Amino acid sequence: MTPADPDRPVYRLLPEVHRSRDAELGHPLRSLLEVVEDELLRLREDIDGLYDNWFVETCAAWVLPYLADLLGPGDLPGGPGGAVPRRALVAHTLANRRRKGTPGALEEAARDITGRPVRVVEYFQLLGTTQNVNHPRPGDVRTPDLRDTARLALIGTPFDRTARTVDVRHADRRRGRHNIGVVGLHLWRLAAHPCTGVDARAVDAAAGRWTFDPAGRDLPLFSRPRSAAAPAAETDAPAPLRRLRLHQELTALRAGSPSTLLAGPDPLLTVTLPDGPVEPARLICADLTDWARPPAPSDGAAPQVAVDPALGRLTLPPGSAPERVRVAYSYGSPGDLGAGPYDRRATLTTALAAAGTPWPDAPDWQIAVSRDLAGSGDPSVPTVTTLGAAVTAWNERPDPRPGQVGVIAVQDSATYDEDLTGPRRILIPPGNRLIVLAAGGRPAALGAVGLRPHLTGTIEAAAPGGQVAQPSQLVLDGLSVEGRITVAPGNLDHLVVSGCTLVGDRAATLPDGGLVSAEANPRLAVRLLRTVCAGVRLSDVPTLDLADSIVGPRAGGLALDAQPADVGIEASTVLGRTTARSLTVSDSILRDRAEVVWRQQGYLRFSYAPPDSRVPRRYRCQPADDAAAGRVAPAFDALDPAAPGFGRLAARCPAEIAEGAENGEEMGAYRYLRQPRRLADLTGRLDDHLRFGLEAGVFLAD
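^ that's the sequence the OP posted. Answer follows.
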């Protein structure tokens, strides 16, 4: 009996006698019917697609404008493939029309247009007016209670409920707020990224001093949205967690009130000691600027842990000096840049395509790394506890052949204190490719999301041997490295660093921390994608490409030291000086002087470079002339890599830079966020959702 093929519906309808005879003859009939069945499958897919296109939830992207024309919401924001979601806007059009003018409809429409949390404030309800005795508003008082510190701390925020006198300036120009008929839309641009299973950094374990950040930096902790709805309270917004707010939550928790922030399946932050998780009631909020320790526990009492959310620090009581402390928290950043728990699968696909080789369906060699031996879920894939052991297993493979692909998957967010240098460095045999990434699941179908492992040490790679037809490649993705990434002299063809953060100059033992460097690899092409590092230094390396990255500056102000290389920069921010043989720049910011040897090659287009830079010809760059040089210069929210707004253009940044990219977006590493387009689409569509007599203004909440 020949088994029926479920993928061949026409062939399956034939009587069994004909299928048996066809099998005896080598399946000539099945081959003939394959042509018919292929057309049948195409017809079936087309019919299924036509049915799906009737519904906004399942239709193809090209159908959305046609559905929008039927509903009449006007031009859809963003273009095809843009970052601004459009499907939800079309889906909610009718519902928002029925609720036109209400805060809920405004919030939902603004969230659909921008993809960001938005809170609507009706400022006309916060005017200090004489009240009607028939309709008193006890909560609206003219003078604030100076003893209510919690309410006073919210002044100037979207959650401010303090009454004001009238302000007659226009809100749509972001000048006035408190006036009759004024509605304010407060937009958060930062995102809160949750990290779990992170090893806290011991600043001084004997003194009980630890930081939430595994790199030992003072990193403010963030609250994160609990749902897709508009933030109803301060802790529902992606904003820094204030000391007073955490103290109030802990005080209420100890008084017996339920807590949705610190208890339950998804607490805002947790601390885990070797003997188990610390109960939320044992946490105390404190100002740990001077690293004050909580009091020693009395007889029989459980020890307390002091937490400072503003600095991202924690201290343990006297007598407590564990070897390991694990934490869970959220940190803020403008976007998915550098190492982080966000979804990096699309970025990884782009990085592998840049190297000329897509993700392998079945790697020739694979291994999982987990400090707690969690495993990959696949018994055929070995699991080790250190990166060094995984690299050693790769280096000592028997009979490596050209064309082989290896995968080292780090499957937790732990800290690995080890140096992959010298005899433990990564060896890339001729024609081999190795991918080292942070990803969970089975290495054959990895999910590069939810993890942020940290390595305190240097990663060194070398490609000894001769040249073969297949290129030798090393891809690093999703790693936080407190050290360097170096390539020793050899014959490596590609080094791709994607979605990584290289922390620089954190200790005297790491004078070149945060550096990507390579020497004497005559065919090497170095590519940085969605990466944050302190600098790049190349010697006898021909090619360097940057895309959506932030670089520098290192000590001395030099960010890109690539004088022998042809450098291409696309939508990146370089915060220090640049040296290169030739330079090609688009939609980028070179904050400091750039010096190029071959200025007859390359170009600068839609970018910023200081006027004294020695660069190739410019096309629509800034500053446009000497008269504008004193006014047009990039302004950033922060230049400290630990700050939430690191590398993001400030609101006061001149429009020539904030909207100076080729597509009208901002120059620099966060061009892909399309912030100017989001704001323009929102302000351009507000009138469609406002009732008569209201005026709306859009304000940035961070």
